[in-house]
Write a structure and sequence with these properties.
Layout lengths: L1 H5 L4 E2 L1 E7 L2 E7 L2 E5 L4 E4 L8 H7 L1 E6 L5 H8 L11 E3 L5 E3 L4 E13 L2 E12 L8 E3 L2 E2 L3
Antiparallel strand pairs: 1-11, 2-3, 2-6, 4-5, 5-10, 6-9, 7-8, 9-10, 11-12
């Protein structure tokens, strides 16, 4: 019942990326929010079952890529458990080294500030080190268990 009711709240879709010792990694995350302007903080909530978040947590610095309306395939790719989610992708890099996906509507260069228990998710608070809006596009929206299509 809760999933159905709260699925009526449309949300943007992000991919959180970082570079580890074995190369780039990332995961799709729908739970993302601007938390504070002063100090500049954002928050996102990876599932406790995520195998990627613990690796990114160790790195401590990451890029939150806000996906554009035409990037549904990227959302699906990074939500999967495939081994190399970056295979065949071209992408840039922030000065921190975190992968910046091409065509996103916005990005946040974040640094882990804190974590809290969120039931079956972890509530991550990140300090904003830098951010940008490279594309003038509409965002990808997830609503009622599917992507909104125009």
């Amino acid at each position: 019942m809760m999933k159905t009711a709260l699925g009526n709240f449309g949300s943007g879709v992000t991919v959180v990326t970082a570079v580890g010792p074995d190369g780039p990694l990332g995961f799709t995350c729908q739970s993302f929010v601007s938390l504070s302007l002063e100090p500049a903080l954002v928050s996102f909530c990876p599932a406790r079952t995520s195998r990627t978040w613990p690796k990114i947590r160790e790195i401590g610095r990451f890029c939150i890529n806000v996906l554009a309306h035409d990037q549904e395939a990227l959302s699906i790719r990074f939500a999967s458990s495939q081994a190399d989610k970056f295979e065949g992708l071209t992408y840039g890099a922030l000065p921190s080294g975190a992968p910046l996906l091409h065509g996103v509507v916005a990005w946040v260069d974040g640094e882990l500030a804190d974590e809290y228990d969120g039931g079956d998710h972890t509530i991550v608070v990140a300090s904003v080190r830098d951010l940008g809006t490279p594309a003038d596009k509409q965002p990808l929206i997830y609503h009622r268990g599917d992507y909104l299509r125009s």
